[in-house]
Specification:
With about 180 residues, the protein is of the alpha+beta class. The chain contains nine helices and five strands. Helix content is about 55%, strand content about 15%. The protein has a five-stranded mixed sheet. The protein starts with a helix and ends with a helix.
């Protein structure tokens, strides 16, 4: 996995490659903020971590999530984030399917310093995912996506950060067992 991770793009380089929704990608990234309390809690966690994201620039969830996670990783000296394109890495994607069947993105895979997988998260915060799978699927795609965008705008990354921080916490706890 080390070679795959090292061949992946750091987020600023990935941002330079986006073509679809470029203004939205840049806008979300510019507005993304990570509260000091979240940074401080994450900095207190031991270990060196590698976070690999699977993404595509056309994905509405990725454009709202990946820039927030990038700001989070940039604030931490012991977390490195890299991005691979989902469609060029289907072997990794297929090992991290949503509900065992869907190639939903973004997906974040957490590796320790030795590139052992310690967990993964995605494709969206659990509360939003529950809504999408239950109520959202009863809607046409445009109104469903509009409601999803409203969630991200109201939430301002709080749910994303809480769940990615929990992914790190779980990995640390698993190492100490």
């Amino acid at each position: 996995m080390r070679n795959r991770f090292e061949s992946a793009l750091p987020f600023p380089d990935y941002l330079e490659t986006v073509q679809k929704n470029e203004a939205l990608w840049r806008g979300v990234y510019q507005r993304a903020r990570v509260p000091d309390a979240v940074v401080n809690e994450a900095r207190a966690l031991p270990g060196t971590w590698h976070l690999l994201a699977l993404s595509e620039d056309w994905c509405g969830d990725a454009v709202n999530i990946l820039p927030v996670v990038a700001r989070f990783a940039q604030a931490l000296p012991n977390v490195e984030l890299r991005v691979l394109l989902r469609d060029e890495n289907l072997d990794i994607m297929d090992a991290h399917l949503t509900n065992g069947r869907s190639r939903s993105i973004p997906v974040f895979i957490l590796y320790d310093k030795d590139f052992r997988k310690r967990g993964w998260w995605g494709p969206r915060p659990s509360g939003l995912q529950k809504w999408v799978m239950e109520e959202g699927m009863k809607m046409e795609s445009e109104p469903r996506y509009a409601e999803t965008r409203r969630f991200y705008a109201r939430d301002k990354g709080k749910a994303i950060l809480a769940e990615v921080l929990e992914l790190l916490r779980s990995a640390v706890n698993d190492q100490s067992d």
